[in-house]
Amino acid sequence: MTVPGTLYGVGLGPGDPDLITRRAARLIEGARVVAYPALAGGDSFARAIAANMIPATAREIVMEVPMTPARAPAQAAYDAGAARIAEALDAGDDVVVLCEGDPFFYGSFMYLHARLAPLFAVEVVPGVTSVTACAARAGLPLAARNETLTVLPGPLPDAELRARIREADTLVLMKVGRHLSRLRALLDAEGLLDRAVYVERATLPVERRLPLAEAPDPAPYFSMILVTKGADPWL
Amino acid sequence: MTVPGTLYGVGLGPGDPDLITRRAARLIEGARVVAYPALAGGDSFARAIAANMIPATAREIVMEVPMTPARAPAQAAYDAGAARIAEALDAGDDVVVLCEGDPFFYGSFMYLHARLAPLFAVEVVPGVTSVTACAARAGLPLAARNETLTVLPGPLPDAELRARIREADTLVLMKVGRHLSRLRALLDAEGLLDRAVYVERATLPVERRLPLAEAPDPAPYFSMILVTKGADPWL
């Protein structure tokens, strides 16, 4: 009887391959099967980050995930991907799933995890998130001592964003994209525009950092707004 | 004239040396001068994580930081540490500061950054935080789609914690330590005890994971409570 393989959900960090952890690098370099999401058409940011580490002999399972507001097409893509991954695991191969950032922080790996963790051995390898990467690149400490940190997805409705922005110490707005103008107006209304920093594609050669007032609209999907309100870094 | 060195604030991740990034590993392995905080008496968790990578020839600048509620003694320790680091930088050496987790996420590096960044070239190397490490080890996805993530330090007053706990989707309570019973009571009052997971020293050989109801009191400083309220991992 074949012993089933292990499913590895491997965080790759924000984009610079040097920010991959040693454990992630070793798993990728030794992989017989890798799997990753890609946009319909084939581009995969996760694969691009790890490209130089994937063995030429590795089999690649590509999950083309449609970017639509409707959930059913993406659900179908993860169902199909999980089935192909399960087949490899059942055949005794380990499968290394490549994940941008961290697998459990706004990552698509959690959809595979929900489907496969009840059936197979799983190890999740945490990665550097875009949050701390953006802060590092911008030279902005995120939170010290008893400060709180709030992470908000940009697509949330205005009223919810406004309430949470008011209460926050340090504030991270993710998934900015086409919501940039709206988020900028909300922050401006709260008197926070001067403290808001925009970071796009942090740690990649094409990274851009700007005061939010000067940020492009619409922004790319991989962009973020940081507002550090309460930092008192002198201790 | 000597060209001053560069100050590197290097995140080491949550504790397992395999979760150090490739960039951090290379900087440590090539270091002529490393610096790190230690408890009065000499134990340094940061140094322990990186111990096998520090060259035998490296000079070590130890900052003994007293753990007292008063700020002045710790301020004095960072003042003195920054002065010694500045001396090495002025002499032309790079200095690699070892930081548990991420340098800008509740890390003491930000106190050195505030003192030295106006004077020297600085690079911050982000690291894996204990937040995503605990989630990975517990098998608990943190946040998907439009869910928010709230990070709260345990020492905050009850009223503030209660209000923020009520509003949160996914909730991370840091710096649990001697606040464990109080935090447990607050979560219980909000009907969240069943969903609260306690993780201690994540990714180390001595790691412990328990339902919060069974967690030890007091907890060690390096412990965390995760509450995932709204996760819908099937997409």
TrEMBL record, chains A, B:
Name under which the protein is recorded: Precorrin-2 C(20)-methyltransferase
GO molecular function: precorrin-2 C20-methyltransferase activity
Lineage, highest ranks first: Bacteria, Pseudomonadati, Pseudomonadota, Alphaproteobacteria, Rhodobacterales
Enzyme class: transferase
Domain Tetrapyrrole methylase residues, every copy: 6-211
Entry similarity comment: Belongs to the precorrin methyltransferase family.
Record PROSITE patterns: SUMT_2 (PS00840)
Keyword Ligase: no
EC number of this enzyme: 2.1.1.130
Pathway: Cofactor biosynthesis; adenosylcobalamin biosynthesis
Domain of life: Bacteria
Matches recorded under Pfam families: TP_methylase (PF00590)
UniProt keyword annotation of Methyltransferase present: yes
GO biological process: methylation
Swiss-Prot/TrEMBL keywords: Cobalamin biosynthesis, Methyltransferase, S-adenosyl-L-methionine, Transferase
